[in-house]
Write a structure and sequence with these properties.
Elements lengths: L3 H29 L6 H10 L3 H4 L1 H13 L1 H10 L1 H20 L7 H28 L3 E2 L2 E2 L9 H25 L2 H28 L5 H8 L3 H24 L5 H21 L2 E3 L3 E2 H4 L3 H28 L12
Antiparallel strand pairs: 1-2, 3-4
Length: 332
């Protein structure tokens, strides 16, 4: 028998990961924006102009899918994370407005540049805080949120907020290494090295802290056979970091970005190992939180059509705008 709940859990996880890596690099460019001056800012923004709003499709798909397929999760997790999620959404809205308006004025461009930076940083940081709050656990009683207003704000969630923002900076800098030339690429190269070291350190800090947040994690990470995967993932993380560092030293264009994506994929895999089969750690399993099978089947029929279409137009957009950015052309 086909496990529709598990299939949908995989689709939601894929949507979240696609959003993180695709929107991550353009948020990262926003975080790095104060490091660029004059024409370099225009070129950096032009490198993401054709794709940045399409990247957020995956956020809509993941959030909408969660509401339809795992309504209990939607109803319990959102009240726990209202503050960081609302701050994230407002930051994304303001960032989008700043992206458009900075091209329409010269006198006020510095203000819109600051808005683009602030929106990117706040959105990234709040996403990391929400992730950390979910990992550390949400209090649920009788299938309803039973925690307090400030439960999401802890030292661990602040650490994951910094970690995700640093990771996005790494994605943004390696994207610019791949897409730009000259002085802008040189700056991105230096930032990529620093953010790679920062991300590796923060991955280690989060990994050392996580098993002690919940007995489920401790058992999952250090009990056979799951401990086998827990041992393999750190080795692969170090291998990706070595590949990233060597690629930057060799002045390669594409490899650093692929290596940075590898670091995110491995971190996401580590979360999956820790969570499964829970969708809310220690509170709700995938099966417990799923909608009725009839609803899952009906929605899956639509997803089978919709998801390939999104993948096709996303891949086409990236293919059309492949290669280096021409400093003399772009979004105006």
């Amino acid at each position: 028998m086909v496990d529709l709940a598990l299939i949908w859990a995989g689709l939601i996880a894929f949507s979240v990961f696609a959003y993180v890596v695709l929107d991550g690099f353009d948020l990262g460019i926003g975080i790095l924006f104060p490091l660029f001056k004059g024409r370099d800012r225009d070129v950096a923004m032009n490198s993401i102009a054709p794709v940045w709003d399409g990247n957020e499709t995956w956020l809509v798909l993941g959030g909408g899918g969660l509401m339809a397929v795992f309504p209990v999760v939607y109803a319990t997790v959102l009240p726990a994370l209202y503050a960081p999620l609302i701050a994230m959404l407002l930051a994304l809205i303001f960032r989008g407005v700043a992206f458009e308006f900075r091209w329409r004025t010269k006198r006020g461009r510095s203000w819109w540049d600051a808005g683009f930076f602030g929106g990117s940083l706040i959105a990234s940081f709040m996403q990391g805080i929400a992730l950390g709050a979910l990992v550390q656990g949400i209090v649920i009683e009788d299938r309803a949120y039973a925690g307090g207003w400030w439960d999401w704000l802890t030292p661990f969630s602040l650490l994951t907020g910094v970690a995700l923002a640093t990771g996005y900076a790494l994605l943004g800098s390696t994207w610019l290494v791949m897409k730009t030339t000259g002085n802008l690429r040189d700056i991105a190269q230096k930032v990529a090295r620093l953010s790679a070291l920062g991300m590796l350190t923060l991955i280690g800090a989060v990994s050392l802290w996580t098993p002690f947040l919940n007995p489920i994690y401790l058992e999952r990470w250090f009990k056979w056979p799951t401990m086998l995967f827990s041992g393999i993932v750190p080795v692969l993380v170090l291998a990706c970091f070595w590949w990233l560092w060597r690629s930057l030293s060799a002045q390669r264009d594409t490899a650093p970005f692929l290596a940075a994506l590898g670091l995110f994929a491995l971190s996401f895999t580590g979360l999956g190992i820790s969570f499964f089969p829970y969708i809310v750690p220690g509170a709700l399993t995938i099966q417990e939180a799923a909608a009725p099978p009839e609803s899952l089947g009906f929605l899956l029929a639509g997803a089978v059509v919709l998801v390939p279409i999104i993948l096709i137009y996303t891949a086409y957009a990236y293919w059309v705008f492949r290669g280096k950015v021409d400093p003399e052309e772009g979004y105006h």
